[in-house]
Queue: 4 jobs
Job 1
Amino acid sequence: MSARATSESDQERSADSFPAHIQRAQHSTQQPHYLRADGSFDAEAFLRGLDQIFDSSQSNDEAEDYLLQALADAENASDNPGLLTVLNEVIGYYRSRGRHQDNLWMIQRALELAAKMQLQGSDAWTTTLINAATGMRAAGQYEQAEDLYQQALSSAEQTLKPGDRRLAALHNNLSMLYSETGRGQQAVEELRQALQMLTDSSPDPERDLDVASTHTNLALAILDLPEASTGADGNQEQAQERDDLLQEAYGHAKQALHIYRTGGLEANPHYASALAGYGQVAYAVGHFGQAAGAYQAALAIIQRDYGKASDSYRITQENLQEAQQAAQAAGQPVEAPNLADFSANSAEAAGQASNQKSDHLATPASAESRPRMSGLQLARTYWQECGKPLLEAKYPQYVGRIAAGLVGHGSECYGFDDEFSQDHDFGPGFCLWLTAEDYAAIGDQLQADYDALPQTFRGYGPREDSVRATGAAKRVGVFEIGDFFQSITGYRQAPAPDKPHEWLLLPESTLAAATNGDVFADPLGTFLQARQDFKSMPDDVRFALISQRLGMISQAGQYNLPRSLNRGDGAAAWLSIGEFTKAVASLVFLVNNPLTVGYLPYYKWTFAALRQISSRMATRLGPVTEELETILQLSSGACFGGRGFGEGGKGAAPVAQRLLAAVESICQQILRELQAEGLTTSSEGFLEWQRPYIESHISSADPSLHSL
């Protein structure tokens, strides 16, 4: 199918503006679930239905019929935003199936539609450019793809926040283009940027699908570097560089599989890419049997999800045959990837190798010329170049026992720090976490040695600690693991699942501080396990909190806010808006599950955290964040109507109506999400009455978990 131009002057496009196989889709007699009673198109319902197809354990072949039907239905409903949503999903689907020729038409249609809608300079324009560029790249249209990527980068600077994961995805995809056009070093650097962005923004990099995918991509990009394929005729220096690069690639490939397994993500179709990537790297380092085992596992997933006709199946099958022949010749058995010697800190070794090759880590001559580094980046680099060498030199017998990282209070632990955050409690520093036995043996001396480390580093420092961050409340240095968590939460370890009242005593912001940040190394896994226990809020507690938040949302937003506005009590209405906003923000985190997205942090970082998780494609209630900000913008006019600005109190009514409509819109989105998650079968819009349905999912009879 060739790409077709479309008329910009058409206000309503007819069915014949789509190719024949798409036209046929619209003749279905069954009413799709995403069409409302009035015939309008519901994009959210469409996406939920698509997710259900992709999340099913059966073949995803039915996805195309669903997508083409939705394409025709959105067109017939004259819903351009909905149509653009479907087109972006079709682009991704055809790309993953190797349907590149069909995809060219879809890409052109999406770009034309977005331009017709005058979306330039918007988030939707950036997203469409990225999807179009990636589709063009997969189709081998490299010149057009690079142009679209550059447009996307320019647009992203205007529309995306620095922590938005789509920036990392953009760098990730741009690296593929550089790799496929022979610019290997540029490809590696783009991926290193992407990996750093994703790791810094992730609530749990050890279970993060995007982090895993980037590790795989980086492993393969390194493998493609000419320096990684130096033959035996190379000199000793070249041979050493080759070995270093192969080990770095092997570390990234293993880390990807580690994340899939730690996070229980093996059912995801992208697991096949991680397995195939591991197979390619394992083959390069001479582990032919493990390479064949990885390819075998990948091939089964590819057949299930993409079919034997896909490019991925053909390429992987060829690689499997080659690996089997090499394994047989080398006398190696075909076996599953052996990760027994792998632990989380292997990723650190890969990261170290990456950083050693990155120019941006060069020490600046002054603070004015220093590179912009986040607190987590600064801490990791300080640990790698100062902390780890200290342990290796003075405590070699403890190197395999001490955990290092940065977790706790402070904006840098969330990745939210900026230039305004550096006036206090900021500078070179990291945490060292020891078991009780090790702390008793070396804790005091290790703290003294830590204090003797350089006070300035990379143009930063010395660290200025506020009164609240000294003594027992210190934020960096040497800690016994139980003491560290007790200093934040009051508990040396997470409450037991059968003690829900203890969980309910812990504010979400406290749990956020105990589970944020990044762990650079943990050979024993003891600290990571303790932190994970605090992230693992029991479902009964989560359901109880969801019920409580629904009660406050309905009480403050649906009941007291309109009554206060009707009374003319702007102050009471203002407070109602505040309570409503806090409850909705908390609900977003609870519905998405803290195990996946972390906990809602300290109030001043509420919206930074909401924006961060809402930028992810799979986040439930993602659009709510922007609507909450709109409510806050409207609140002044609605509550006080211009009083004090020479307007005599006039003009509040229209703004109040918009405010109440926005509140109700959020409540309806919450209701739909509760229904989609199977938490309620009720269609009652006043959310207080949804509480019994939520609490019916609580298995414990503990009275602290149930409302009166």
Job 2
Amino acid sequence: MAKRSSLAIRIVEGKNLPAKDITGSSDPYCIVKIDDEDIIRTATVWKTLSPFWGEEYKVHLPPTFHSVSFYVMDEDALSRDDVIGKVCVTRDMLTAHPKGYSGWLNLTEIDPDEEVQGEIHLQIEILGGATARKLCCRVFEARDLARKDRNGASDPFVRVRYNGKTQESSVIKKSCYPRWNETFQFDLDESATEKLCIEVWDWDFVSRNDFLGKVVFNIQGLQTVQQEEGWFRLRPDKSKARVDEDNLGSLQLQVRLRDETVLPCSYYQPLVQVLCQEVKAGPREGKVHLITLIDETTTAECRQEVAINLVKLFLGQGLAKEFLDLLFKLELDKTDEPNTLFRSNSLASKSMESFLKVVGMQYLHNVLGPTVNRVFDEKKYVELDPCKVEMKDVGCSGLHRIQTESEVIQQSTQYLQSCLTELLITIAKSVKTCPPTIRATFRQLFKRVAEHFPENKHKNVKFIAVTSFLCLRFFSPAIMSPKLFHLREKHADARTSRTLLLLAKAIQTVGNMDTVASRAKESWLIPLEPTIQQGISQMKEFITKLIDIEEKEEVEQPKAQTLIVKEGPLFIHKSKGKGPLLSSFKKLYFSLTSEALAFAKTPNSKKSSFITLSNIRAAEKVEEKSFGSSHVMQIIYADEAGRLETAYLQCKCVNELNQWLSALRKVCVNNAEMLCSYHPGVFKGDKWSCCHQKEKTGVGCDKTRHGVMLQEWNDPLDPDLESQLIFRHLFGVRDLMREKYLELLTENTENILLSQSEGMALLLMTPWGPRHE
């Protein structure tokens, strides 16, 4: 049995933010912190007080998760970014909303006394006899304290208060991982109601000391147990009244916490077998399909989630193509009008959409990447709609004139034709790089639709069925919102966004294969019609080649798909020897596979084995002060002799840092001998920069964070978790499924063919898996 916690986050938008720039606007972005650790940075939305992000993330969490905080920042090119405000969502708040919290939350001002983090190791005990007893407080160490000084550290000391008396520890300079090992004693007052308060402060020579957090103990409770020892989370000081902060604006969020108890795979086998048997049997006339019942009893708000869980489960079983084929047939059986085919948000549509994202994201990047990057880099002004054309000055100084509307449209047409032609050529050449599993699935879809609509007047329908997914639900959304498909790190500005939108509409028109309908709806696309007509012919030829796939190619695909987990350029510094560590990093191209982390000088160079995955012991962040640079991670691994070595890798941003850490943690999740602690600093001279320990091989001063990972489309499949999620859903809708089954049984008594065991399972909805909520 295992606990799996995850957090689904959607940062929607902000409104009424205060202006931070002299232009009367702001350039807002969000930083998301999980228990005070930076995990996500959204894109910056330029020059607005009402930004829209629409970014979604899913984070795997350790069971000790406490809160998630959203900091709205204003990006500045010349100075430090300004903090606009924050929103904190606690675990208790999320537990009170089991279906997730969704709504607007007011931003609050950053209060230094509430910006605390970290833990302190204490032992509290009562000593002595019945008459003269002492209250003894031993302060051992603290970890991950807030960084209050410009050097990226703090100078912490402890202040212990009890019954009107105060004692203080020594100050540990430049450390967020201090070790005191000091003891404080007070005379125990049996009649006093005073609590024991242990506060941590950052000592400052010039200004006032900064509060770092506190822990409070109830002495009456302590007298019962006599002694209490452990790591205690530092709490903020909330004694001050909050100032009215309505003028900071608000943030719209959707946050959902899910805690799953996942049992061993044997518990889920009956459920998985029932689902697989149904899919293997395929569509059968007169049968009440379990998949049909799932489709008709699943609400629109959770259909996407159910679809992705089913897709991942059948991918793990090697039955994704058969599952989607069954959905195609069931959908076709309900459809007589080809114009509405796969246009609804049915389980078939959602499952196919999810399937393409899980299996085809790398293919999408290869096809769309060059054209999308071109549009971002060239930043051309493009507009075809006469109602939206802006007149621009052209020509050199002194000879400039205003462009006419027809000139703008002509230049825009030429540019869009160039981009569209380039993209269509890339798509046409991508047959062999398209994953065979996708090709095989499209072949089944093409075949099913051709059989259902055999008339010559519907000769295009089988092609449109493919493009309705490939173009309308995959390529086009990615072109319109490249940030959401990880094609770009930042959102497009207004000019680039308009160009991408027009290009996406052109691809949609090609996918619809009906320029007459498009012309009636948006007549200003007419200038692109020659290119679109040519594109339709190219798309048909491409689909014909795409579905021509050998069975052996389809079988071999899973191996190739799991080969590369993540790749990209990073800066490396490798720690060796006893001397001072220099902050010099060399840029190399890294590739993380299922076997090793490899590197080379360029993407096309021959890669040398760098670290074997089975030898990795930890993948963690490094303190900013260690190298004077942000976004550095460390990989602790065992060399051939079994000695622990550390490699330091620098990323370009917090998102890339966490993506690499997540990828490394996922591929090493089953490694033996993973470390429970590590040093977030570096060993400089004769001591660690974090905790000042002088023993290089000593126990780390901070706990490792193996459980914190970002979910990506290319994550390794987790069959037990997917089975549990499907079981939970079926268990929740069992009454609706029973009612729907009886309804269908009544309507088709003479035609339904259902075995007694299947009928009883559906009728009673006896859980096939473990019976727990």
Job 3
Amino acid sequence: MKNLSVFFRAVSQRQDLALVMVLMLTIGMLILPLPAVLADILIGCNLSISVLLLMVAVYLRSPLDLTALPGMILVSTVFRLALEVTVTRLILTTADAGTIVETFGEFVIGGNIVVGLVVFAIVTTVQFIVVTKGTERVAEVGARFTLDAMPGKQMSIDSDLRSGDIDQAEARRRRQELASESALHGAMDGALKFVKGDAIAGLIIIVVNLVGGIAIGTAQRGMPVGQAMHTYTLLTVGDALISQIPALLLSITAAIVVTRVGGHGTDLGRDMAGQLMANRGALRIASVLLLIMALIPGFPKPVFLGLAALFFCGSRPNWKYLRNLILRRDTNEVTEADNTNAPPGMARGNSTSQSGEIFTSLLSVTITPLLDQALDRGRLERLLSLAVAEVESDLGIRCPRPHIRVGGNVGAPRFSIDLEDVPIEEHTLRLNHLVLQDDPMHLDLAGIDGEAGLPLLGREPTIWVATTAEGRLKTAGIGYSDNAAAIAFRFRLAMRRHAGRFIGLQEARQIVQRAEGEYGDLVREATRIVPTQRLAEILRRLVEEEVSLRNIRMILETLVEWGEKETRAPMLVEHVRQALSRQICHRYANQQKTILAFVVAQDTEQTLRQAVRETPAGAFLALDPDMSQQLLGAIKERFTNAPGVNSGGNRETQPIIVCSLDTRRFVRGFLTRNSLDYAVLSYQDLAEEFPVHPIGTISLGISANVQAAAQKH
């Protein structure tokens, strides 16, 4: 027993020995005769492995998780053919092929030779003509399309790497995944030829066994013709079916894998059920058709009525509405009664607050009931949580947890991003459509139809593609997003744009308290010099311009250094920005650590200085309306024609605006008021290791007379 445990432990540590043993056993079965008991064991192993492979394929999340399948097909096919040789030898020499073959033959034949031959013919036809031939065609086409799409996918990976969307490790992983996918399709295309040949060999083997067995039984064993036909037909059909059924299971396994290319990260059952149950209208129409079929004379009514009820319940109907409809109650009266019981201040028919909410939510998402029915709420919540985690990691602050509310227009798939219960942006989505996140030219090359709509993910018009083309988009390597991802994208942008509102006195204290554990003396000195109220304003101004607070040590040290010399929060912010110049420049530099910049001309800066007004509430920029429009037009023209713009309207590196320290915050405020999200840096914000490459000048081109008039104004 101890020696046996040592043997199994050694085998478990050397999995390669198992394959070697299988191959050696296969060679032995081709040459040496085996007893019927060992044949039963090998037949059971063959059937078990086929069932295991089928279950693995069903629960497979991606074809790349089973790249060893072509090799498994080869080994199992050769093993099965060697096993058929062994069983054929047993049938012809001893008329005894083991218990499994005999039992299977008696069970299938049922005392009738013709029935056995017909069943075998049907199984072989299904495997050879339907499953194997179809799988072979799918694998062939998949391999061809995968090879054709490889250059485009490689270019997409290189483009993402150059733009900084992915790092070297992610690019390497994607290239390896692409190479594995191509190799899998090519190998499957070749491996399925073995399955096809196995089916042909099965037909030949059954003819040989029948003719040879009857001849040996009558000529050598002296059996009557009827007894010889019954005996050898039973064994032959049993052998053929017990070998063809594992081959059929292996063909189905290969078919599932090659048709699962471009899976959605879920197993086949969930994937199929999710897509079949996604369209509620289709389920309801199918239930109506089944009800009509139940009315046909002669059809089993309980069967069709049960299926109709199942389809209708699967469409997740609004039972409350149906109950009111059956009772002939006016839905408007029901809505009026519900709104009467609503809290004061809530709009009728529009749920603006979730049950249990007492205080105003800083940031929330409101979706209409129609959109709520079409969305996967769990996926939307996960994407919103990921967006919060990304912004928190990037800016070094604690963001509010996302709230999802249902309300608004019942008949439109709309959503809004609400800041303090006030919508800051609203968008309309399209059901059963995807949002293109790629160059529209790629759609034309792939022959996929798209429809332009209002901008959603950027400044360019949104291209909507029907969800039925999702598989073709994946195969062509074209980027896209679903509605949940689009909502999360807008939510992420809203969080970044209004992140300054997430920092108040309490949040500033919490940031300082988190830093106190590591920088206790520094925190105490900084809070002594800079009051918490001023510290909160400084942190808020930094976050409003997407300056991360993760380097809290440098921020506090700068405040300790300048806090007693400068009491104005805006100027303290400029000193902090100067201390964080390397961090700020890294954010806007390209891969060569170069910053593309538009420089504000000196005459324009002088005009801006003259337009600054000092008041007890603080300084503000008071530009003449004509001059304001002229400056706005100049900035828009520069950024529209900036180099590095691709056909999709995106830039690999966003240019910045560079100006003097005293005018920087006024230029930034001017852009913010005009809904322009361009970074503005002062000359003091530029670090030495990040060279600036001027690509243009922003100038008003104002004459001396106009400047004098502005100064007099």
Job 4
Amino acid sequence: MRKITQKTAVFLLLLGAMLCRAQESPEIKRALVTARLQLIEGSKNYNPEAGLATYQQLAAQGNAEAMNGLGLLYSKGISVSLDEQQAINWLEKAGENGYAKAWYNLGLLYKEGVGVAQNYEKAISCFEKAAKGGYDRAWNTWGGMVMKGKGTAENFPLAISVFQQGADKGSSQCIYSLGYMHYKGFGYPQDYAQAIGLFEQAAQKNNAAAMYMLGLCYRNGYGVTIDTEKAKYWLNKSAVLGFKKSEIELSDPEAENAHPNQLKTVSKPIDEVITITETDAPDTFKKVKQAPIAQNISGNYTGTLLRYDFSGQNIISSTPLEINLQQDGKQLTGEWKEIAGDTAIFNARIQDDAIVFEDSRIDRTEHFYKDTINSYEFKDAKLQLLQTDESLFLAGNLQLYNIKEWENEKPMYLILEKKQDQTTVTQESEVLSKVVVYPNPFGSSFELSFDLTEETNVNASIYSMTGNQLYTTRWNNLEQGVQKMNISLNAPSGYYILRLNYGQQVKSSILIKQ
């Protein structure tokens, strides 16, 4: 259970008082105010025994606010011994006597496991009672648990309905939450324009989270033209209100969408791809339909994991991979290794419509978790196989689940390549071999060497991990024997793909530029 300080408990009491119904006489109101002040350690009125006595007396007389206060005191062990059952009894009694805030307080205790055993099912029931009982702040908490699937099955339509009821009552947090669902495409078609309209409404109500999201939209060009000044304006306004994420974003020199495809990203419907025909990384996200996997796909693969913004219009990260797959019937096991990243062991089962992972997770960093490691569950993949003369490709979508946030990660596209088994290639058929890049990592240039078994023409190309060609040259009529070439590459630090073509055959290598 989480430790709660006396200061926190008294804050809940004060908050409850500010939001309660005007049901007491002036004398009772004064008595409650005095009792709350007597519970504040360090206050000149500090007298916890007297404060407790006032709550007990008024609660016995049927005052629901005092019942709520007693429930909180028992839940924290302030002036009384910590007593879970007494805390529950008094908060329930306060709620049943019309004090909706008490249901909300009890829901928070169940949600956080404070003074009572953590129980999401009971928490969500309490938040629903609080919202329907007239405590408007509970609409957003209730809707958030439904949206995340805490204490109930994830239910986007119900979450939207709950948030909308709260928004209709003027809740800026519910208005923000509706924008959040449009922004990420949860329960709605993903739409930055709809999200921004709602964020603006909530921001006008001084909602710090909405201001933060507006700052992100302007910084990254999500639904609006990139405008760094407007981004700073909204992020600074949010930071002044104490929203820590805004402070972190302001301190980051690089935006999430550091290399946008356009200055203004407009959300568009993404059609499902029935048949993949290309092995290059797509500039925009492709939603792939799983094709039946009728052959054994065991082997060692290299490739790339592309991560897009929620609209799928921009690549925001590209991660080189090495993956070892072992297939036994419909069961897959493997090792997932991210170059300069984490390594994970995974298990999965091949189904007709997807590859579904079982109890497999990985720790990763990304823009919003640069200073911490965040854990993700492998959820499922939808892949298709492409066979060439030299390689077997697996390409399609991967879905990760953000454990901390209780929600699906951004759209991802996976490209994996397994070289044809070299035992099937005769010595005579392999014209080009022994490809060596030195040094690797390299600075501005590197030496490429390879062997030829006969005179031939060789094409060399270098691609970014997103598939953009950065360099190409052709060497004609190279003689048999060892070849040495010096290549300069004017490009940022990172990972690149070198491809050597001779006739119908291709050799690929990973380049690392410092």
